[in-house]
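Now read these lines:
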Amino acid sequence: MPHYGTFREQMKGFPVRQMIVISLVRFSEPISFTSLFPYVYFVVRDFKAAADESQIPRYSGYLAAAFSFMQFLCSVHWGQASEKIGRKSVLMIGLLGSACCMLMFGFARNFYMALFARAAMGAVNGNVGVIRTSIGEIATQKRHQAVAFSTVPLLWNLGSVVGPLIGGSKYLTRPRGEPHTSGMYNDFMNRYPYALSNVVVAFFLVLSATVCFLFFEETHYRLKYKHDRGLDIGDTIMTWLGYEMPPRPWHRPSRSEIQDSSTPRAPPNGVLDELDGLESPATEETPLARSPDLYAAVESDDSASESVDSADFVTTPLSRQMSSAIVRRYSSHASFPTSFADEEGPHSIFSSEVLTSPVLQTITSNFMLAFQNLVYSEFLPVLMAGKLTVSSLHFPFKMTGGFGYDSDSIGKLLSTTGFLGVFVVSLLFPWMDRNMRTINGYRLSLCLPPIVFMLLPTIVYTNPAYNPSMPPHLTTIFLYINSGLCTFSTATAFPHAVLLQHRAATPKFRALVNGLNLSLNSLARCIAPLLWGWLISYTDSMGIVPVSWYILSLLAVISLLHAFYMKDYDEEKNEDGV
């Protein structure tokens, strides 16, 4: 069990500024993904892609699978690209590319154009894996990692509040067939019923890309010393606003300034915070501050060709004590990654060094978790939007269609339960991390989905149209409770899964493992909507819709049992083996 004392002690030295920027970048991703959920059923219906209403879930699955399949094909390549051009560049490409694809989707005139837009969006977006790698490079102290990695699901849940509100808004989205008056706005909405919501989401993405360009500091160990003009502009803006910004590695003192110095001096305070995380395994604190100029010399063999003004390079004179400390630190194999000293070249994804047993276990668990979460997130709105056919209902298996809700009601439900996820991740998960082992918290989180999936389709039998003795709002209340419990589960399961994966992988392979994990999660999100879209359409045509959800509950039980074969991995042992 981790022992970090109070929350204040755990947060001491936390890299707040960088985490705020990466959080803003992350925030826009779930908005773009979840804004589609409230109206995906109506998109398929309005484009007349399905032969009848029972086939709408299948075509809804195609839209989700197109995004995930292309992300599966491209995520590892984006992870590799981030090793060459940097995390920051890849993040900006993903954000701006997604913005263009959202506009293409919003103005699509037929189903196949919308399908292409979703596929293109998946191809240009490999940001989740890169964000996870960047967080691991920002929060290097173990006591900070639980809070840092929990921002990924926290921002997902926060985006899941905003996204459905945008997609379900009656002012931004108007499925065809709804009554409206004449006028420029109404004529536009009639011609492009889903455009405005996508324009708003694209604006969020462009705004995030701008923040990333101006304020995000490159985290790659070698590329972060390259001259970053965007960061220079951002520093200028912050200086105008009255903030004091630290000198950057590419802002080196001139030769004359060094020669004018008559006494040895250490680097200025506040410049060298970036190596706080490269502490020895035995301690949480590091007394040594990092000089960008000095470490540029250490890395000159690797990055001389990329260094700016390398011909004029000089180092700041150091005291003997400081020099000895540096020699001791970088003689330590645990603190000095192998890839710093000599480039071994790219490793195969299927290398035994990369795919260790702990890594395989965490990736498998992540795959199953992503699969079942996608099915619930994607097909809950479809089930809610399906036509309520009272004559087909007979507990516990007989049912066709769904609950008969409109896009506005679906958006409100998804947003409300998304807000619950924000509360859970921000307050409950840190408490769980301080008082429980990571693996135990993960197992506890996986106990709810089997129950939630089993009960979801049975809620329709509480509808007063089927059972007049039931109160009018009981069905809606039960849907909110069901969705809230699922949100509670995923909001705590995903940060635990990320922590387990991060600690299972050796540091020098984490970018590759994160890219591989994202690709396999994308594969799960590709298979899930295709398979379940077909399954729900089939069970709908047979009049036994609840059966598909009972099968999903069984898969959730298998995922829970697998978690009991996993272990709580020790990150320090992995670092010793780097």
